[in-house]
Write a structure and sequence with these properties.
With 167 residues, the protein is mostly helical. It is built from two helices and three strands.
Length: 167
C-alpha cells in the first residue's frame, strides 16, 4: 500500500518527530540525572556503611579493652577481698591473743621473771609444783620482789609508759 503524504502532513510529522526527539532528550536527561543521583546515593551510603563499620570495629576494640580491664579489676578485687579476709582473721587472732595477754600474769622468783601464765591460778599451781607453799599467796607485800621467794604480778604492771604518759 502506498501512501501519499502531503507537505503539511510531512511538516507535521517532522514536527512530531522533532518533538518526540526533544521529549526523548528531556526524558534521557531526567534519566541521566536520576541515575547520577542514584550513583551519588549509592556512593554516600557505601561511604556511610564503611564509616559505620570502622566505627563499629573501633567500638569492638574499645569493648575488648574494657573487658580486659574489667577482668583484671575483678581479679584484683578478688585478691583484695582474700587479703581483707586474711587480715580480718589475723586481727581476730591477735585480738584473742591481746585479750589473753591483758589478764596474763608473771611468776617472779626472787624478783626474776620465772614464767608467764594466763591466770593467777595457773601461776600458783606452777609455783606449787616447784615447791612454793600452797595458799601462801596474798597481795604483793611492800618488800622488794627480790626478797620474796615467789610473787605473782600482772604482766601489764611491767609495761613501759609511752612518751608523755605518766605511770
Amino acid at each position: 500500500m502506498i501512501r501519499i503524504i502531503t507537505r503539511t502532513r510531512l511538516t507535521a510529522m517532522q514536527q512530531d518527530a522533532n518533538g518526540a526527539r526533544e521529549r526523548a532528550r528531556e526524558i534521557q536527561g531526567a534519566a541521566d540525572r536520576a541515575y547520577a543521583g542514584h550513583l551519588r546515593t549509592v556512593y554516600d551510603l557505601t561511604a556511610d556503611a564503611e564509616a559505620a563499620e570502622r566505627a563499629a570495629d573501633a567500638e569492638r576494640a574499645d569493648a575488648e579493652i574494657a573487658r580486659e580491664l574489667l577482668a583484671r579489676t575483678e581479679a584484683q578485687l578478688a585478691d583484695a577481698r582474700a587479703t581483707v579476709a586474711k587480715q580480718a582473721a589475723r586481727i581476730d587472732a591477735l585480738s584473742g591473743d591481746l585479750d589473753a595477754i591483758a589478764g596474763a600474769v608473771v611468776l617472779l622468783h626472787y624478783g626474776q621473771l620465772h614464767s608467764l601464765h594466763r591466770t593467777a591460778r595457773a601461776a600458783e599451781i606452777h609455783a606449787q609444783s616447784l615447791g612454793a607453799a600452797e595458799g601462801g599467796w596474798g597481795p604483793p607485800s611492800e618488800r622488794p620482789a627480790s626478797e620474796v621467794a615467789w610473787r605473782i604480778q600482772l604482766l601489764s604492771s611491767f609495761a613501759v609508759p609511752e612518751a608523755g604518759e605518766t605511770g
